[in-house]
Amino acid sequence: MMPLLQFDVIEGRKPEVIKTILDVAxxxxxxxxxxxxxxxxxxxxxHKPSNMVFLDTGLGFERSTQFIxxxxxxxxxxxxxxxxxxxxxxxxxxxxxxxxxxxxxISFISNQKGDWSFGFGxxxxxxxxx
Length: 130
Known about the structure:
Helices cover 32% and strands 22% of the residues. It is α/β, with parallel strands linked by helices. It has a four-stranded mixed sheet, with helices on one face. The model has no long low-confidence stretch (mean pLDDT 96).
């Protein structure tokens, strides 16, 4: 089942940079979770710098204005899948976008098949449409 990726970023990135971030993330979703190509659901929220405060939980690093908070709403995934996703996303965002690992925070929110409707008020996973 598809994940929904919700990105919170500090405003000011160019549209082509946002597109690259989303494309990179989708490629990692395909690799880590093995979902179909068209299972792509992504949302970007931009915030003023003063409206995003994310420290390091005492880990000893500093965040920059390139910080991304990513929430992954998904059906249950194994720890191995989640760890692969996190590792590969950090690697690929640094490679393609120059985003440092300390500027990426990821949180998984698990839900069940009956929690999704893709349209028409129908829970397609539970009705058998999907």
